[in-house]
Amino acid sequence: MIFTVAIDGPAAAGKGTIAKALAAHFGFAHLDTGLLYRATGRRVMDGEAPVAAAENLAADDLARTDLRTGDVGKAASEVAAVPEVRAALLQFQKAFARREGGAVLDGRDIGTVICPKAEVKLFVTASDERRAQRRHRELVQADPSLTVDQVLADLKERDARDAARDAAPMKAADDALLLDTTDLAIDAAVAQAVEAVGKAL
Ligand code: C5P
């Protein structure tokens, strides 16, 4: 069975949690496409040119444990605006989306560019403040001096760059189901996503 669930939305809205839960529930494979850009950004921070970094990406890069920091997120969003970087990562994502057995991909351009014919498209959002609180909770363990306001400023800068770029900007596909998780517990958000996928299967 070929079946793709495309999940897009801004940082820390809950895409990853929903994607993982859907994959587990339906037995689909999951690809966090942000990791591809983070791993590319990480290689650029280590001195490689952006397009070469994307072309040379290997499984080891994706397994690095230092990809979740704010600095890497910023580097990811910078390389993600380069059309040739996106082109280098395109085929892998398209093939993953149409693999046998079903796939869930989360990112910014899955429903618009990577898999415009995805059987289910979700666009997951939440208020800036709620997203900053969530991301702060994740990052503060590694960096106790980090404030919610700093995280909020970083998220806003990154979202603005992701939405304004010419190459595959972050936006909801016309046929995406909008899921606002500002005041929705994660279980409830997952339940809505499971229902949407179950109806389309
Ligand atoms: O989702 P995550 O925060 O890990 O993504 C890091 C960055 O990678 C995003 O800010 C965005 O610039 C880029 N990205 C993208 N397209 C995707 C996934 C991520 O441009 N499909």
From TrEMBL:
Keywords: ATP-binding, Cytoplasm, Kinase, Nucleotide-binding, Transferase. One of its GO terms (cellular component) is cytoplasm. The keyword Membrane does not apply. InterPro entries: Cytidylate_kin (IPR003136), Cytidylate_kinase_dom (IPR011994), P-loop_NTPase (IPR027417). It is found in: Cytoplasm. CDD domains: CMPK. Its main location: cytoplasm. GO terms for biological process: pyrimidine nucleotide metabolic process. Its EC number is 2.7.4.25. It catalyses: dCMP + ATP = dCDP + ADP; CMP + ATP = CDP + ADP. It holds the Pfam family Cytidylate_kin. Residues 5-55, 59-197 form the Cytidylate kinase domain. GO terms for molecular function: ATP binding; CMP kinase activity; dCMP kinase activity. ATP binds at residues 9-17. Belongs to the cytidylate kinase family. Type 1 subfamily. This is Cytidylate kinase. The lineage of its organism: Bacteria, Pseudomonadati, Pseudomonadota, Alphaproteobacteria, Rhodobacterales. The gene is cmk.
